[in-house]
Design a protein that fits this description.
The chain is mainly alpha-helical and 159 residues long. It has six helices and no strands. Helix content is 81%, strand content 0%. The chain is elongated and about 50 Å long.
Length: 159
């Protein structure tokens, strides 16, 4: 049986990751100018791609979290999955600050590995509740894998 979409909670679920990313971007805006001066690894995409990619990823993860929240799964299962999601959002918020503002590229790489693990755990927990929610997290995992390559490359090229 299909559930009726609850537009308020859906809007909140979409807004939360966008707000996390937007606030983090606001806090790191000055570091972006410096970042343009560092050596970048091969396959580094143009700067305009990052906000586009992150906006799409934030919307996908927000939609996934809504599917979990709105599911008929037990409160305990939903709470566990959404807690993992919240931890991943916290790590996602911190990474740009460590990378762009503090310029601690290796520490940022380690944090990115933690973020990747948190997102994989979140995707697995989401999948157990709603397969669509887990699948919506796959692009995020792929992007984080690419971001780890870029982050490691920046650290290696600029130490």
């Amino acid at each position: 049986m299909k559930r009726k979409i609850q537009y308020g909670p859906l809007a909140a679920a979409l807004a939360i990751p966008l707000a996390v990313g937007g606030f983090s971007a606001f806090l790191t805006r000055d570091g972006m100018a410096y970042f343009k001066t560092v050596s970048q690894p091969p396959l580094s995409p143009p700067a305009w791609l990052f906000p586009v990619a992150w906006t799409i990823l934030y919307l996908l993860m927000g939609a996934a979290s809504y599917l979990v929240w709105a599911s008929g799964a037990s409160e305990k299962r939903r709470e566990r999955a959404l807690t993992a999601y919240g931890l991943s959002l916290a790590a996602n918020f911190l990474w740009p600050i460590v990378f762009f503002t503090a310029r601690l590229y290796f520490a940022a790489f380690l944090l990115l590995l933690v973020l990747w693990v948190l997102v994989v755990i979140t995707a697995l927990l989401f999948s157990c509740i709603d397969d669509r929610a887990g699948k919506l997290m796959i692009p995020y995992i792929v992007w984080l894998s690419f971001a780890a390559y870029l982050n490691l490359g920046v650290w290696l090229l600029n130490r």
